[in-house]
Design goal:
Blueprint lengths: L10 H12 L4 E4 L2 E4 L9 E8 L16 E7 L5 H11 L5 E6 L2 H16 L4 E6 L20 H13 L4 H13 L1 E9 L17 E4 L10 E4 L3 H13 L9 E8 L5 H17 L3 E2 L3 E3 L8 E9 L2 H7 L3 E2 L4 E2 L11 H6 L14 H33 L6 H21 L4 H16 L1 H18 L7 H19 L9 H16 L4 H18 L14 H4 L5 H22 L3
Parallel strand pairs: 3-4, 3-5, 5-6, 10-11, 10-12
Antiparallel strand pairs: 1-2, 2-4, 7-8, 7-13, 8-9, 10-13, 14-15
Helix pairs in contact: 2-3, 3-13, 4-5, 6-7, 10-11, 10-12, 10-18, 11-12, 12-13, 13-14, 14-15, 15-16, 15-18, 16-18
Length: 580
């Protein structure tokens, strides 16, 4: 279990601060994560990696010479936000473009893709390679759906080797894709992990049993079996991976036996002894074996085996010296940066806040109502934060409650600040949206940012919008969420509550209902739809692989949306009954 923390909501930020303080030789803090203390030479491709915290040494521990130039570091088990990724990439960029690489999870894909779009719009060339090494998470016919686990290291290191060798952005991306295509991983766990402040692990395994095909975010395995001997485990791991030997592999392989947090190195060495024998018996040439912790899952007891199949190019790039806080290979010679740390620091701020242009008096009045609405949303999340976490832990990673809390609290602060400065309705809600998505990170942070931004766009900063404008904003939000997140009705996501909410709101307003009346009716529809998701199998997100575990439990994203719109309905009803 995790024993030491202050406020669980601040754990990731405080952890990053401590990591930077302990590793100033290698990294420096920037908004959203870390970059190299000594920037790479001007014109070299910058390799930027990232993901949720809780996986050390991934991702910040891999920043340094010969490996990553920057790491965007999200909350525990939650993707970094678009803003965080953008800021880290801007700070790491040295003129040669940016290669993004990260594990293939929904929130990471949403936020890294959005950051990439922003950077491209600013004239910074970007490419992305998502890591898909986990063979347990999808079939060989659907490799694009697979998760990234410990194979992150082989892809990151290959891409960084190509960047160090002077490859252009297209060449670095090609090498990263090649490395990903030649990387396979498979893992088991003997116990789940416990997030700071949580009363219990995200999943449990009976004594003497192990979960097979686990995820690194506390997702339970896809199967369960009795704990074998060390040799028996080696045989399971090797047999599963050799069954997926990549086409064209010539027999040179880098084996990486990864500890997931609390498995002892001595135990892994016993397992690796047999792994080495089995690989030799299969006629394979073992290159640079790794046994240790490379991508953990907090305090999970478990291990995964990765096989990285080399070719001549990958073998040469693999010899690139590396010197980072948590991973070192060879001897790294000093590099001439070609750009000063002061110049690089200038990029750290990323986005700069624009001054608030005051709205007119009517819009300022609506802005004050929006502050109450955001207060109510945050209050609803606070009341149910533990329940949301427990629901999310059934087949996910248990972070939905804390992520929603971080996001809604940040939105509340931004709304209060904006309204106090005289902002109109649209600006107040838009700034709340940006704060929510930035602070929450993950899938839910990105999608709530889309929702609030879309509604803000329908309100304006002049005049008093009518009920139809609010309904139109919610309809735009629904389209935006479905387009951005790619989910549809029946996928067991927030879309299953958002679509009926929007449809009922629009119909009720068109039928002559006041906004408060229409909103209450729509909130009831959303609540019923959210409850009905309990019967669904998830077809999107991390829960997809473990869908059977979530049957009987509503989708946390749909449930939290229903809670929030219900609380907002109470505010609107109060204002309708007691107009100012």
């Amino acid at each position: 279990m995790t024993r030491l923390w202050n406020d669980p909501a601040d754990f990731a930020d405080e952890m990053i601060d401590g990591f930077v303080a302990a590793n100033a030789r290698y990294v420096r803090r920037v908004p959203g994560g870390v970059v190299r203390t000594s920037p790479a030479p001007e014109g070299r491709v910058a390799v930027v990696v990232g993901g949720g915290s809780g996986h050390y040494p991934a991702f910040g521990g891999l920043v340094g010479a010969g490996l990553a130039d920057g790491a965007a570091m999200g909350n525990l088990f939650a993707s970094p936000s678009t803003q965080q990724i953008h800021a880290v990439a801007r700070a790491a960029h040295g003129g040669g473009g940016v290669l993004f690489s990260y594990g293939n999870y929904a929130g990471d894909v949403l936020n890294f893709d959005a950051a990439q779009e922003r950077l491209r719009a600013e004239g910074i060339a970007c490419e992305t390679v998502a890591v898909t090494d986990d063979i347990a998470s999808a079939s060989a016919d659907e490799t694009h759906r697979r998760r990234g686990i410990a194979g992150d290291l082989t892809v990151f290191r290959s891409a960084a080797g190509a960047a160090s060798a002077g490859y252009d952005l297209a060449g670095v991306a090609r090498v990263a894709r090649l490395a990903n295509d030649r990387t396979r991983s498979f893992g088991v766990a003997f116990s789940g992990c416990t997030l700071p402040g949580a009363p219990a692990p995200l999943f449990s395994v009976a004594e003497g049993r192990m979960a097979i095909g686990l995820g690194i975010h506390g997702e339970p395995g896809i199967d369960e079996a009795a704990v074998p001997t060390a040799d028996g485990l080696a045989e399971l791991l090797v047999s599963r991976l050799l069954a997926e030997r990549p086409d064209g592999a010539d027999g040179r392989v880098v084996p990486l036996l990864n500890g997931l947090g609390s498995l002892k190195h001595e135990e892994m060495f016993v397992v690796y002894r047999r792994i080495a024998q089995l690989l030799a018996e299969a006629g394979l040439e073992i290159i640079d074996p790794h046994v240790g912790e490379y991508c953990t899952s907090f305090d999970m007891a478990g291990t995964s085996l990765t096989l990285f199949w080399l070719d001549d190019e990958l073998a040469e790039l693999w010899e690139t010296p590396v010197d980072t806080p948590a991973y070192r290979r060879g001897s790294v010679a000093p590099e001439a940066s070609g750009r000063s740390t002061a110049t690089a620091a200038d990029a750290d701020t990323g986005d700069t806040a624009t001054a608030i242009v005051p709205g007119d008096s009517e819009s300022q009045s609506v802005a004050r109502l929006i502050v109450e609405v955001v207060d109510a949303a945050a209050g609803a999340v606070d009341t149910h934060v533990d329940d949301l976490g427990r629901m999310d832990a059934i087949a996910g990673d248990g972070d939905h409650g804390i992520g929603m809390q971080r996001g809604s609290h940040a939105a509340r602060a931004a709304a209060h600040e904006s309204a106090a400065a005289g902002a109109g309705a649209a600006t107040t809600l838009a700034r709340a949206a940006d704060a929510w998505s930035d602070r929450a990170g993950g899938t839910s942070g990105a999608l709530w940012g889309v929702i609030l931004t879309s509604v803000a766009g329908a309100l304006g900063d002049t005049g008093r919008p009518d009920a139809a404008a609010a309904a139109n904003g919610v309809a735009a939000a629904t389209r935006g969420v479905m387009s951005y997140g790619k989910a549809e009705l029946g996928d067991k996501t927030m879309v299953d509550a958002l679509v009926p909410f929007s449809a009922e709101l629009t119909a009720a307003v068109a039928g002559g209902a006041t906004l408060a009346e229409a909103w209450r009716s729509a909130a009831s529809a959303a609540s019923a739809a959210a409850a009905a998701t309990a019967a669904l199998l998830p077809r999107m997100g991390r829960a997809r692989t473990h869908g059977q575990h979530s049957v009987g439990t509503p989708d946390p994203g749909a449930h939290s949306l229903a809670l929030i719109v219900t609380a907002v309905g109470d505010v609107l009803t109060h204002h309708e009954r007691t107009p100012s």
